Amino acid sequence: MTHTSPKTAILYRMVMDKHICPYGLQARALLRSKGYSVDDRWLTSREAVEAFKAEHGVKTTPQAFIDGRRIGGYDDLRRHFGLKVRDPKATTYTPVLVVFAVTAMMAMALSQAAYGNAFTLRAGEWFIGLSMMVLAMLKLQNIQGFATMFLNYDLLAQRWVPYGKVYPFAELGAGALMVAGVLTWVSAPVALFIGGIGAVSVLKAVYIDGRELKCACVGGDSSVPLGFLSLTENLMMIAMATWMLAMTLAGPGAVGHAMAPMAELASTGAWSITP
Q1: Whole-model pTM?
Q2: Quick one: DSSP state of residue 81?
Q3: Which CATH entry fits the domain spanning 8-80: 3.40.30.10, 1.10.10.10, 3.40.50.1010, 3.40.190.10?
Q4: How far is the C-alpha of 79 from the C-alpha of 85, rounded, in Å?
Q5: pLDDT in tens, 214-232
Q6: Which of 46, 122, 123, 235 could bond to 258 as cystine, CB 3.0-4.6 Å?
Q7: Alpha-carbon distances, residue 147 vs 44, 156, 164, 204, 250 (angstroms)
């Protein structure tokens, strides 16, 4: 009977009192997931790290060795095993899709709690309002970075620079009022204004001028390409504002409007608690 020798790898990584390299931990986990027995060698001081880098002619740690051959760091290990390595310069729609997925779940959860049904028109209103609030929150994490990236394509910001710093607050305020279902005469015009300018700006930059830009919709360090989803965000604001204005003008008895007074909810038992 033939015995297959166990697969082994040597991994050098930083493990210090005040710092444990996260890439070293990821490299060790990856090697173990591929069936390797890892000889885990710690570099416990800055001097040890510098001496290791000088000895092997490398600039970073961790460093993995398989069968006596240096593979490299965590990204190099992923390439060695045929796994995808994220390109930090690559564009992706993932951040916006995650925001929309989470806010959709939040809206349906609120609708279920309030009406006993996750799929109501009010859930649709909440989804758009919550999306606006979350996107504004992401912009406000680095408002200067957002405002700078925004200047690349927004037509109003290019003419009045302070608008780049006003926009996130306007988006947040309008979204909050829409979620609350109050002061529609304030929230709807604001959403129509910023959504309309945003839609025209994206259409011009992407579909008329043919420019390839990054969207500031999730903040100034965004890797989201300016395009369809950016346009969708603005069209959602326009649609929501138009809908709420129409319902307000039609009056509280408008057919199909999902906002019911608390008293009505209580009378129907939607908010009742069964002991």
Answers
A1: 0.77
A2: T
A3: 3.40.30.10
A4: 7
A5: 888 888 777 888 888 888 8
A6: 122
A7: 43, 12, 4, 19, 38
